[in-house]
Every structure is written in C-alpha cells, then in structure tokens.
Amino acid sequence: xxxxxxALTPHSHDSADKxxxxxxxxxxxMRVLAISFVVLTATALIQAVIVAFSGSVALLGDTLHNFAxxxxxxxxxxxxxxxxxxxxxxxxxxxxxxxxxxxxxIVAVIAASAxxxxxxAVKRLIDPQDVQALGWVAAAGVAGFLGNEWxxxxxxxxxxxxxxxxxxxxxxxxRTDGFTSLAVLLSAGGAALGWPIADPIVGLxxxxxxxxxxxDAAREIYxxxxxAVDPALVDQAEQILTSTPGVRHVGSVRLRWIGHxxxxxxxxxxxxxxxxxxxxxxxxxxxxxxIHHLPRLSAATVxxxxxxxxxxxxxxxxxxxx
Length: 322
What we know:
- The chain crosses the membrane at residues 32-57, 63-80, 101-119, 201-218.
- It is a multi-pass membrane protein.
- Keywords: Cell membrane, Ion transport, Membrane, Transmembrane, Transmembrane helix, Transport.
- Helix content is 67%, strand content 10%.
- The protein has helices at residues 2-7, 15-54, 57-71, 73-83, 98-126, 134-162, 165-192, 198-225, 231-242, 276-293, and strands at residues 249-258, 261-271, 297-307.
- Helix 2 packs antiparallel against helix 3 (57-71).
- By secondary structure, it is mainly α.
- The chain has a 3-stranded mixed β-sheet with strand order 1-2-3, covered by helices on one side.
C-alpha cells in the first residue's frame, strides 16, 4: 500500500543533498555580495574625494554609478537570505523568487543612476566649467575600471555557476561601470587639451552606456519573471528522457527557474502492460537521470502515461479542460 501511494505522489531524490546544495549556493552568493560591496564602496569613496576637488561631472557620474552598484548588494543579500528559508504551506515552492524581485530593484537603481548622470551632464553642457586636478581624475577613472572589472568577473562567474540571473545582471552592471570609468580618461584628456566641453560630452556617453546595460539587465530579469529558459535545456531534458530505459515517448517538458534552481514537470509514455510498480520505477529512473544530468535541476515531477495499440484515450475525462 505504501509503495502504491508513493507511485501517485511527486518523486523526491536526495532531498537533504539538494537542500545542502541550495544553502551552499546562497552562501556563495552572499560571499560574492559582501566582497564586491567592500571593493566597490572603497572605489567609489576614492572617486568621491577626487570629484570634490576636481569638479569633473564625468567622474561624478561614474562615482554615482559605482555607489549605486555597491548598493544593489543590499536587495540581493535580502533575496539570498529569504531563499534559504524552507517552503511553507503558503509558499509551497519556497522563497527563491525573491531573487527576481531583487532583480527588479537592481534594474530600477540602474535606471535612476542613468537619469541622474544624464541630468548632470546636460546641466554642465549648458554651463561649462573647468575641470581641476586632471591627473587625479584620470587615475580615478583607471581605479574605477579595475575595481568594477574585477567585481564584474566575480559576480558573473559565480552567478552563472549557481544559476542566479539577478547576480549575473548585477555583474553586467558592474562591467559597464568599468568601461564608463575608462571613458573618464577621455574627459581628462579633452580638458587637458583645452576642451572643457569634453567632460559633459563624456558624461552623456557614460549615460548612454548605462542605458545599454539597463536594457540587458531588464531583458534578463524579464525572462526570469516570465519563466523563460534556454531552449537548449529543454532539448537536453528531452534527450535524457528519450534515452531512459522504459520510456517509449516523451510528452510535454516544462522547466522554470525558482531562484537559482530549476524545477521540471515532464510527461513520459510507458508500455501499457506495465504494472503500477513497474511504471513507477520507470518514472523514478527518468527523474533520477534528469537530476543528475540537467544542470541546476533540483526537482522534477514525472507523469507516466500508458501507451498501447488499442487506441484508448486515457485522458478522456480531462479533454474538456485542455
């Protein structure tokens, strides 16, 4: 009776191991956020000091963006902390979606920094001013690039390893900050040649660059909110199921991200002469192979349909609902 009851419920696989893996992913994410927060805050503080005595609006835009990038660690840290909570009867899939909400906050912060940097650049175009301490301004630009590029590589690498779209979006944000920091060198060079208008023009170019990363980050988060996955993952899942002994055909395959873990719901077709226990064994085997061979998959629900030569429709009762 126990075995038959288990056959009618979603199959589980090494739940303790999967919980440990999820906690480890969140811990890695928190570690990345803490280290990158320190690096970017230090970089932005150095730049802020130079902005104060140089008056460079291009460097001001870069500094503001670095501060904004450092602050995006806050919603992500909250999301990773929430994601460690166990599922409840209300939140039956857990709290992994908090990362998607954090992604929305990150996109909003990027948009706000772009708007402010653009405003300051336009204001300086209308009322040009000389930039002082050009050597320090150039040095601040280089420091901004090095700090941001290091953080970007770190965030993107770990974000992809743990499957966090929000962390990858934050890494892309930092990468653009690095290239905009290099643009500050153009501002300092133009001012040194006697072109004070170069500073606000570079400020506007920085704003445009921020808008491009805004587009990429928004697309990344939009895909997660709409349960989009890489079609190659669906193809891979179908191949794994097709090669599973006992599986005659593969029906629908649905995948979705919950935080930085994948969940799957799949339909397979098995021989109609199999007993309930035998069909259950095929379903368990299919789930086992999916979890082991599909990256970032934490759980799968496998539904087995009987296949036969009599042409019987085993879903007649559900036809009207489909």
